[in-house]
Inverse folding.
């Protein structure tokens, strides 16, 4: 009897331990308390909460019958919580969304169609916004989010290491070859433990060269991968070359100490990095005075870049959808974008307020991030992008680490990615 | 469980017994309700989801055993099962041996016993994420203490967490280090429950310390050892956080270091394929169940219950 009991206990324990999954919960929201319309806005970046608060203050001053609650959820829980609360019908009325999730969420019926409301308003997206950004949130010609900000990449560099090796600083006019020549001169002349550049398996870094070479990772109709296109392979190979020539640490070394950590501790002369690093780098006393940034080196005669970013979406099942749409559209206005530009370090999606970003750190050439925004390519996406990215990163790692050639890896990648596309297209 | 040797005859049971029963149910109610809502219901739902295609928003579409067919064709699945089994085969015996050793050492009369006990137990009360971060630094190829120490002996270190051959093993070492303390405490408690008279009798009969350990400690401790083995086995099958923290995206070792739980996590929370993920976790459950059942079947041969 005692034994059987123990057995039962242990089996229950096993059952319990092997099922600890998730429990999502959303907070209910009260509608129209005290005659006021209560709206909520969801975001994930605590650094931008202050800017949002300032915008909301301005909005509620103009619209005294509306009160807005800000819901901050850290990035790692943001999507899980949003998915759970949207399923329960209690998602924030207006929330941040990135291009990565737009199509999936639209298909899930979570995003309100903003096309008509925007046309009625005085937002004029065509005149005030870069087309690439607006198109990122369009599905079948319908708009599902108001672009909020945009992120691009540039070439950050450490002046101290350039001085040490006696090499001239990079300029906005640099080509990829200029960068290679500088790397050759830097290599071995900056003291031990320092490298010229880092070539991690990071789509943000190699996507621009893929685009500039004329390739892509996804076919135009978004139904098939294009990893074996010679142009695509060229855009990736030029990064692998950086490791082979010894300009960059090996992938193994970059695993232990990541490119950003190396740059922030002053051990990396050049780093292809995002505009969104501006806040962190400007707060790093160790390197703030020593670094600057220039445009991504031109490649194949083009100014390559990739524009990612996020937008404001409206919850389709919001009880105050009209009020929510009004707020979302206002957040895209010049007034709101000005407040955003002044209070945070992101590049606003609205062209006329981008100057606030470029003036953020006067001693840095931050204009490098926006100079060629009109030539930037939108971040490629489809519904299975998260899965594709993981596969791509795992496969490319084999090529970057020299275990296999890029040709072999691309063939495998193409075949395995095709399976993911097939599964996606089936639905 | 309440066992009454001399149960009161039925006629006298009356209201008092009834009241006691109600009170008993009330006492267990919070736990039972909690388990029902947070474990039993999701468990059943999980099995159901395994036969559906489920998107991010929990919209389920029945698809029969399609998820399972896909799973058994998935290359990653074979590797993940192999890795999980590998983890089990390495972790269970080594943690058991180490914690037995530490427990018996701490069960003797040595100075600063409670200090050492605290020291060995510390990893058990530290967040695994914090532990993973510290070990990541220890293993760092260029600046890590491990390679510095190896360098003193003229051995050239590696980028341990980037090498497909070593990365998984290195993480298992951390897992072992983390679990010794907790299991040591359980075994130690078991050892302290063993009556001194057994040892006294054995010593009079001429038994040495080693004979005492294998002929007295181990057999009497065997139910505790079984418990430790089962929890370790289940735990080692569920390794996730240390690998997730220590082998970052972009590491050449990542593709070959996935475990079943890792595969589940990626599908459920990164790819938004909750149906497929549910199928994976059902398989995890079945495997764990099977191994536990085998252990229970084998226990008759070696576990000794004191009467």
């Amino acid at each position: 009897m005692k034994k059987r009991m123990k057995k039962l206990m242990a089996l229950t324990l096993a059952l319990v331990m092997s099922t600890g999954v998730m429990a999502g919960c959303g907070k209910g929201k009260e509608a129209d308390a005290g005659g006021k319309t209560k709206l909520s806005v969801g975001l994930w970046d605590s650094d931008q909460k202050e800017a949002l608060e300032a915008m909301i203050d301005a909005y509620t001053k103009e619209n005294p019958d509306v009160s807005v609650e800000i819901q901050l959820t850290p990035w790692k829980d943001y999507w899980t919580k949003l998915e759970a609360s949207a399923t329960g019908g209690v998602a924030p009325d207006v929330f941040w969304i990135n291009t990565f999730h737009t199509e999936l969420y639209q298909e899930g019926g979570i995003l309100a169609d903003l096309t008509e409301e925007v046309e009625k308003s005085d937002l004029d997206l065509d005149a005030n916004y870069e087309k690439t950004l607006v198109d990122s949130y369009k599905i079948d010609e319908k708009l599902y989010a108001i672009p909020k900000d945009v992120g691009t990449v540039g070439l950050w560099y450490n002046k101290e290491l350039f001085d040490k090796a006696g090499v001239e600083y990079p300029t906005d006019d640099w080509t990829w070859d200029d960068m290679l020549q500088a790397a050759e001169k830097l290599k071995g002349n900056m003291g031990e433990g320092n490298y010229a550049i880092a070539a991690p398996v990071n789509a943000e870094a190699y996507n621009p060269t893929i685009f500039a070479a004329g390739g892509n990772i996804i076919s135009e109709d978004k139904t098939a991968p294009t990893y074996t296109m010679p142009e695509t392979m060229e855009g990736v190979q030029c990064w692998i070359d950086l490791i082979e020539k010894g300009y960059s640490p090996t992938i193994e070394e970059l695993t232990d100490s990541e490119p950003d950590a190396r740059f922030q501790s002053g051990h990396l002369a050049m780093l292809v990095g995002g505009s969104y690093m501006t806040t962190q780098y400007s707060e790093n006393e160790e390197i703030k005075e020593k670094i600057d940034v220039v445009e991504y080196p031109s490649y194949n005669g083009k100014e390559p870049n990739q524009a990612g970013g996020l937008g404001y979406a409206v919850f389709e099942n919001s009880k105050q959808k009209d009020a929510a749409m009004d707020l979302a559209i206002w957040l895209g206005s010049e007034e709101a974008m000005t407040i955003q530009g002044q209070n945070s370090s992101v590049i606003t999606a609205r062209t006329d307020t981008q100057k606030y970003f470029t003036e953020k750190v006067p001693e840095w050439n931050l204009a490098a991030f926006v100079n060629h925004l009109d030539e930037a390519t939108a971040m490629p996406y489809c519904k299975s992008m998260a899965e594709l990215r993981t596969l791509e990163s795992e496969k490319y790692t084999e090529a970057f680490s020299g275990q296999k050639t890029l040709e072999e890896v691309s063939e495998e990648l193409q075949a395995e990615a095709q399976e993911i596309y097939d599964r996606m297209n089936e639905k | 469980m309440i066992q009454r040797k001399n149960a009161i005859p039925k006629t006298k049971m009356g209201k008092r017994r009834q009241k006691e029963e109600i009170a008993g149910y009330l006492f267990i109610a919070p736990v039972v309700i909690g388990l029902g809502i947070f474990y039993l219901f999701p468990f059943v739902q999980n099995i159901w989801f395994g036969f559906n295609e489920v998107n991010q928003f929990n919209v389920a579409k029945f698809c029969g055993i399609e998820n399972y067919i896909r799973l058994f064709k998935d290359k990653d699945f074979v590797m993940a099962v192999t890795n999980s089994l590998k983890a089990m085969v390495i972790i269970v015996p080594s943690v058991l041996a180490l914690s037995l050793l530490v427990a018996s050492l701490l069960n003797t009369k040595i100075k600063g016993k409670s200090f050492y006990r605290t020291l060995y137990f510390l990893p058990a009360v530290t967040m695994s994420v914090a532990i993973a971060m510290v070990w990541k630094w220890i293993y760092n190829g260029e600046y890590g203490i491990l390679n510095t120490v190896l360098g003193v002996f003229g051995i050239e270190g590696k980028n341990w967490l980037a090498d497909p051959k070593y990365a998984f093993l290195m993480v298992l070492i951390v897992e072992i280090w983390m679990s010794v303390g907790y299991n040591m405490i359980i075994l130690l408690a078991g050892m302290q429950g063993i009556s001194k008279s057994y040892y006294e009798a054995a010593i009079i009969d001429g038994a040495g310390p080693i004979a005492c350990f294998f002929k007295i400690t181990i057999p009497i401790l065997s139910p505790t050892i079984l418990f430790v083995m089962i929890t370790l086995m289940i735990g080692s099958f569920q390794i996730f956080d240390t690998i997730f923290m220590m082998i970052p995206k972009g590491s050449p070792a990542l593709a070959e270091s996935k475990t079943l739980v890792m595969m589940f996590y990626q599908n459920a929370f990164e790819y938004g394929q909750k149906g497929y993920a549910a199928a994976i976790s059902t398989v995890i459950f079945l495997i764990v169940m099977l191994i536990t059942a085998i252990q229970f079947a084998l226990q008759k041969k070696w576990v000794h219950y004191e009467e």
In short: Chain A has 19 helices and 13 strands.
